[in-house]
Amino acid sequence: MSLKVSVKKRFKGFSLDVSFETNNEYLGSGKSMTLKCIAGIVTPDEGYIELNGRVLFDSEKKINLRPQDRNIGYLFQNYALFPNMNVEENIGAGLRLTSAEKKKKVSELVKSFHLQGLESKYPGQISGGQQQRVALARCIAYKPDVLLLDEPFSALDSHLKSQLQAEVLELLRLYEGEVLMVTHSMEEAYKFCKNLVIIESGSSALFGKTKEIFRKPGLVSAARLTGCKNISGCTISEDRIYANDWDFEIWTDSIPAGISSVGINSESFEIWDDPDKDLNVMECNIVDIIESINGYTVIFQNKNNINTANMYFDVKKEEWNNRKNKQELFLKIASDSLLLLK
Amino acid sequence: MTAGTKTKIPSLSSDKEIDMKLSPILISMKTASLAIVITFFLGLITARWIVKIKSEKVKMLLDGILTLPMVLPPTVMGFFILFVFGVKRPLGKFLLEFFSVKIVFSWTATVIAAVIISFPLMYRAARGAFEQVDQNLIMAGRTLGMSEGKIFWRITLPLALPGVASGGVLAFARGLGEFGATAMIAGNIENVTRTLPLAIYAEVAAGNMDSAMNYVVVVMAISFVVIVLMNYFTLKGRKYLYKGKVK
To answer: What is the mean pLDDT of residues A185-207?
Structure first.
């Protein structure tokens, strides 16, 4: 597999300009690899990496700064705490200060990362969440220009995750620089990130503001990554879109050029109890209903043509149980919740 | 206690008292101690250097050369050392003429023999231990701005310590027991190059089994104490691992 990434963007106080290609074998779509290249842990085959106007890597000019000279904080997936050092020593490992200054700085960090009482414990003796805080404190102590987080919550139990996400969000406010986070969780991306780069099978597909991407993914791949379960190829005529996979016509205005697919988020359907049929209301043939903690996932097809693809409708329990017409199901696709995709 | 002192001690295998010279014990202790210090650091440095080499072919070749002293008969190594340091050889001649230092048949030769023969044990153990250290930890050190030297002394070496220490134990034991190469290049000169293994050989050759038995006991005692001590320090050095299990 080969990886090509091309990201050029100026952030406030931080500009990232990465474009490289590597032919190493690895799993995943290249998210972690991108971070590793930036941190200098992995050397890209060719390309160019610039941070705040400083060239970190340039294959043409044979520039390749050592990780030590890049001043980039990297939070490893498994935290990579030094098992032979206690919490205090781990946090102070990268500091080049006199021992008195170091002690002061470390005790400040211990306090702000809520690690009091654990100073002389070894990584093996503390919990996963505490280990993560130590690793984060260790990165931030070193005052990096940019902080890279490699799937920071993947090593944690799911019941701890949301609590720790909130904690980490708060701790990251202590850090003044920019943060680059790799995740495969849309939820994490939405919670943590202002800007988003979507990397699909090794190449960057999309770059933009997170909330905008979630609202208007624009690309089929982005829509899929933001969790859109209903995507269909389409043909366009003047004021309506025909969704091929659903054998269904959707009326909408202002269709931009080049649209090849449409998507509907599974939460965006509206149960249509009104006996008068409106535009964009589909009569549904229910295939299956899956119950989850807070609601149901209704799997259905267009009743007029049961050879069409399955569609997914996520609905709250209350809404589903209180629907008036329980014999039949009609769903309305609001034209403003329709995702027009290239 | 000076070299050559004779001590009256009870024989271990019969009830009559025998003479045991202390000089082989002293010479052996001095030789093995100095040899292990040299071997230890030489092995560490070499292992660190080999681990860093990127080309697998070069690595394999160098590893083969560095391990040879372990697999070749010690007499062959002794022959090679003679070949280098012999007074009629360029290096031996140079040392003799310009520094008036004669290596062969001197105490220094016992140390050289012990170092060369015990080196592969130290080097291989250290290399294996270094390669076992999680690369992520080394990378973490680098991204934290730690210099390569600091990473080695604060991360790699402490984490590799159990392996390194066991290599040290083996190398010390091998150095203490070195016989073949020592006999070739240092000879068996009483009070100068007669180490414990050579003394045992000499006593047995002279038919003094009682005296030989006493040296044997001394060698076994020293070896045993050293191994126990090393295991103890290894355990202490890895306290974090054992502590880590207590939640």
So the answer is: 72
